[in-house]
Automatic annotation (TrEMBL):
Belongs to the Gfo/Idh/MocA family. This is Gfo/Idh/MocA-like oxidoreductase N-terminal domain-containing protein. Residues 8-127 form the Gfo/Idh/MocA-like oxidoreductase N-terminal domain. It holds the Pfam family GFO_IDH_MocA. InterPro entries: Gfo/Idh/MocA-like_OxRdtase_N, GFO_IDH_MocA-like_dom, NAD(P)-bd_dom_sf. Residues 145-263 form the GFO/IDH/MocA-like oxidoreductase domain.
Length: 364
């Protein structure tokens, strides 16, 4: 086989539940292969590999250090708890491993900057696990949002992601543990809502972030279970984000422009794997009797044979392949938008901690 056509060998560092979905995606992607899996328990790694249909060629490791030392692993998918990211992502970069890192990428932007420095120093690619960004629908959303004739200028975005965790989730999940994923719902669900808002604003950072008074609910150890925030930009653009572990499953984007409107009801995980829809409206108004709409919203359906997580793995493996085989430089787009997402997460968290004080992001 031609060297340039050999699939990128990806190791899975950690056996978190979300790693099942990404393991499937790696096996579906034609330019990637699962090369190894590591856990702090060899038995757990063996069980994870067998229950997820790993190829016989995949190596099984009982420590994270072992997978770092494997010269036949090109890249690592890291779904470890957020508090462990800075250590293991840096160690992976120092071993020359490209990194697909679950979100939130770090506990704060200072930690992420250390990860990025290690990646830049060692010439490795980093991407986060925000899967919806790679869905074919997302490109169509962008076409509409930046069409001056159909959408006009963006004025407001509302994005939310909520789910109702059961008693076991709220007591035992790593996302509610301050020493594991201390950002709680904000770092997990809020990451998606913030990324959607930045996406609609062409990744321009807001100038301020303010937690909405009365919206925050913390658990007993002080981890965020529910919160909302308002964001503002120059020229009167605004946004609100909302995330919660205590409310029914909802994942919405509504973007309003001077000429049009866009709405997505399932932006994080589509209702169906094989197709996804969104609604647009341009120059909507009322009829003369004000009993119906003129130019009512229309639905657009995007059919796809590729799960969005496979699209993510394909793109990650493509970038790694360009570096490995053609001497390309790592793509700076991903660390740039990851950092901006983390900055907004940090600002909202700071506002929560400071009793809904307005936090400025200017000059950061």
């Amino acid at each position: 086989m031609d060297t340039e056509m050999q699939p990128i060998r990806i190791g899975v560092m950690g056996c978190a539940e979300i790693a099942r979905k990404v393991s499937r995606a790696i096996q579906l992607a034609p330019n990637a292969v699962i090369a190894a899996v590591a856990s702090r328990s060899l038995e757990k790694a063996k069980l994870f590999a067998s229950s997820n249909g790993y190829p016989e060629s995949a190596k099984i490791y009982g420590s994270y250090e072992s997978i770092l030392e494997d010269s036949e692993v090109d890249a690592l998918y890291i779904p470890l708890p957020t508090s462990l990211h800075v250590e293991w992502a840096i160690r992976a970069a120092e071993k020359g491993k490209h990194i697909l890192l679950e979100k939130p990428v770090a506990m704060n932007v200072a930690e992420f900057d250390k990860i990025v420095l290690a990646c830049e120093t060692n010439g490795v690619q980093i991407m986060d696990g925000t899967m919806w960004a790679h869905h074919p629908r997302t490109a169509k959303l962008k076409e509409f949002l930046f069409d001056s004739e159909r959408f006009g200028q963006l004025k407001n975005v509302h994005s939310c992601f909520t789910l109702a965790g059961d008693e076991d989730f709220l007591e035992n999940n790593i996302r509610v543990k301050p020493d594991l994923d201390g950002l709680g719902a904000l770092g997990d669900l809020g990451w998606y809502a913030i990324r959607a808002t930045l996406f609609a604003n062409n990744f321009e950072l807001p100038k301020t972030a303010t937690a909405i008074p009365g919206s925050t609910i913390l658990n007993e150890p002080g981890v965020i279970l529910t919160c909302g925030a308002s964001l503002s930009w120059e020229e009167g653009r605004t946004a609100t984000i909302h995330c919660s572990f205590l409310e029914n499953l909802t994942m919405e984007i509504t973007a309003i422009g001077t000429k049009g409107m866009l709405r997505v009801h399932d932006f994080v995980i589509p209702f169906q794997e094989t197709e996804a829809s969104f609604t647009t409206c341009t120059k909507g108004w009322f009829n003369k009797a004000v009993t119906a709409w003129v130019n009512p919203p229309s639905e657009h359906i995007i059919k796809t044979g590729l799960p969005q997580e496979e699209c993510m793995v394909r793109e990650f493996a493509r970038l790694v392949g360009e570096i490995k085989n053609n001497g390309a430089k790592p793509d700076g787009f991903w660390p740039s938008i990851i950092r901006k997402t983390q900055m907004v997460v940090d600002a909202v968290k700071e506002s929560v901690d400071k009793n809904c004080q307005q936090i400025s992001l200017l000059g950061l």
